[in-house]
Amino acid sequence: MQRSCRIINPVLILSLVMGSMPLTVQAQPVALVSTQQLLATEQVNADRERIRELLARTEVRDQLVGLGVEPAEVEARVAALSDSEVRQMAERLDSMPAGANAVVGALLTVFIILLVTDLLGLTKVFPFTR
Questions:
Q1: Which whole number is the average pLDDT over 26-44?
Q2: For the chain, which residues make up each domain, given as ranges?
Q3: Rounded average pLDDT over 46-57
Q4: pLDDT class for 73, splitting at 50, 70, 90?
Q5: Is the pLDDT reported for residue 99 higher than 60?
Q6: Considering Cα of 66, then 67, then 68, then 72, what sign does the dihedral take?
Q7: Which Pfam families does the UniProt entry name for this protein (predicted)?
Q8: Please, which contacts does 49-55 make with residues 24 or more away whose CB atoms are closer than 8 Å?
Q9: Residue 124's closest CA among 57, 42, 59, 68?
Q10: How far is it, in rounded angstroms, from Cα 42 to Cα 58?
Q11: What 3-state DSSP class applies to 3?
């Protein structure tokens, strides 16, 4: 009797556990991604990379340091930009003439973005905004 209970007990426990599990797995709802959405995402990533490359130039970094902005802070800020902000910044870069004015304009744009976020209290880059 005890020998048969040793065999039957694990089988009964296993059958109860397996019986309480659902037999089907429900699929998670997933929306299809349109071509326009995919291309927009790729364009934003390309624009963000172009902004990073511009800010990685030595003359841009020197001017930012001269304004009191650390390069690590700029990198973090570019990474935190929303897609629409990246798009706006890239459009401004496209509309600027080539040459030294573009660097100054890009610096001015970054400075304004940093200043606005500082005034809103989101960051603490410039001490004169407190």
A1: 83
A2: 31-129
A3: 88
A4: confident
A5: no
A6: negative
A7: DUF6627 (PF20332)
A8: 50/90, 50/93, 51/78, 51/86, 51/89, 51/90, 51/93, 52/78, 54/93, 54/103, 54/106, 55/106, 55/110
A9: 68
A10: 27
A11: helix
